[in-house]
Specification:
Elements (H helix, E strand, L loop, with lengths): L2 H7 E4 L3 H7 L3 E6 L5 H12 L3 E9 L2 E5 L2 E5 L2 E8 L12
Antiparallel strand pairs: 1-2, 2-6, 3-6, 4-5
């Protein structure tokens, strides 16, 4: 995987109450590209944060239709990745260390 693709895979950390609770268990949640694969996500996290990844789980969040002031709209579909780190590693910036 090239360096440019690796920098584009992780879009943002997912900051929610559940994500912060999971960070205490060495599990972090990221918003990723919709075409990213588990091995790509694993490599990107390991290289960007210098940690060792134990497991990656991926979840597709489907698009949702919404109405706002009688106008139809939608919230785009996106992909979420749950990354579990090996014991002894953590990503301190995203939550509990």
């Amino acid at each position: 995987m090239n360096e440019e693709r690796m920098l584009q895979i992780l879009l943002a950390p997912q900051m929610s109450e559940k994500a912060l609770r999971l960070s205490a268990e060495r599990q972090y949640v990221f918003k990723v590209l919709t075409d990213a694969t588990k091995p790509e996500i694993k490599t990107a996290v390991e290289k960007l944060f210098t940690v060792e990844v134990k497991n990656v789980r991926v979840l597709n969040v489907h698009a949702v239709k919404r109405n706002f002031r009688n106008r139809a709209g939608s919230i785009s579909a996106w992909k979420k990745a749950y990354v579990t780190l090996k014991p002894g590693f953590s990503i301190g910036v995203l939550g509990a260390a």
